[in-house]
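anyone else get weird line breaks when pasting these?? whatever heres mine. first is seq + tokens for prot A
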Amino acid sequence: MRYISEAGLKNLSNYKYHGVDNSIIANYIMQPFWRKAVNVLPLWMAPNLVTLLGFFAIVASYLAMAFYCPQIQESAPSWVYLFCAISIFWYQTMDALDGKQARRTGTSSPLGELFDHGCDAMSTTLIGLTFACSMRLGSGWFFFAVTLSSYCVFFMAQWEEYQTGIMELGYMNVTEIQLMIVDFIHIVTCSEQIIGSNLSTSSGIKQP
């Protein structure tokens, strides 16, 4: 059984991505960095491999967090939160570079765009779960609301593109959410763990 039907393959071959990114951080801070960073990638590296490198970092950070926080309310070692923050930055960078690498090597394709969006969809889930672990939300209604909201935002963005033919991102979009909120929470939690550990050590109190 094929994942994509014959009709879907025909439609996919006619697909052309049209995107407008109004993000303040992406346009004025990250884009200059991304334009230089793509030149570091070797020309033989396939754009889908760039996508996978970013996705694997998110998977690795999720597995580390899931190991230490299976109930979404435990405390993990400080390095886990720092690793999650770095992984999100790495993922965002790779997600921005895969398209640039495709245009640079002349290998852009609708199938590559589908693969990119598929990895983004799975990453949305995993990033939301690691964020919930950093917040120690537990498995109650608030955890459900936070994770469901991330799914809704991603779905509505895809639905808008389906209806209008344009993927338009606002002035405050996924770049701001991931870097300013999620990464910030991971770093704050990491700092809290380090400071708490140092205070306990200096006062002679053993960590539970």
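and prot B, same format (seq, then tokens)
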Amino acid sequence: METESDLNECKFPLKKTGPKPGIIYLSSIPPYMKPNKVRNIMSQYGEVGKIYLQPEDPEIRKRRKIGGGSGKKKFTEGWIEFKKKRIAKAVVQSLNGNIIGGKKGSYYHDDIWAMKYLPRFKWSNLTEKLAYDSAVRKKKLQQEMTQVKKETNFFLEQVDKNKQISAIKRKREEKQLTSMKDNSLPSGDDKTDSINSKAPKQRKLAQSSIRTNKTPPDILSSVFTQ
């Protein structure tokens, strides 16, 4: 015969909960260290779940490459999930502020770990954060593009205005030159007046020349009387 406690156990079975995961935040990533390398190092201390490293801004990478630097992909920060929370805490206590170490002379030997354990932090929080950051970056990019369009349109408007002003100025100069040429040429009345004013002078000159060539009458009479 089933007792009341047996019935309760059938209705409400106890759930077996496994170890809770713990998440570590890396505030900086050694130069050019990739997610696979991070996983290999961290797996030495315990079972690792998810890993996410934030890539650097593509524009920063582009400027570095143009300036003669390395074009390799870099990561700025990261999150590591350990399957067991106590392992995550122990890793932070052991590694934070210490050199990466490994084989002497290795590329990352002298780089220092900068990490922090995130209590009550879930991977879903990271997903939300990344989605928010992506939306912020997208909005910022749209604002920058809008600003660039405004500046471009303003520049084109100024160019058109300058062209119009130059055309108006050129027309005025051409009109002034035409007016100056017209004023420098004498009109028909002016020509007639100048001719009429010259005519008396020419007549006087002709009369004077006639007088100088004419022989005096008293001289002629004296010659014929002899």
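btw re prot B: The radius of gyration is 52 Å. Strands lie at 22-26, 48-55, 75-82, 115-118.
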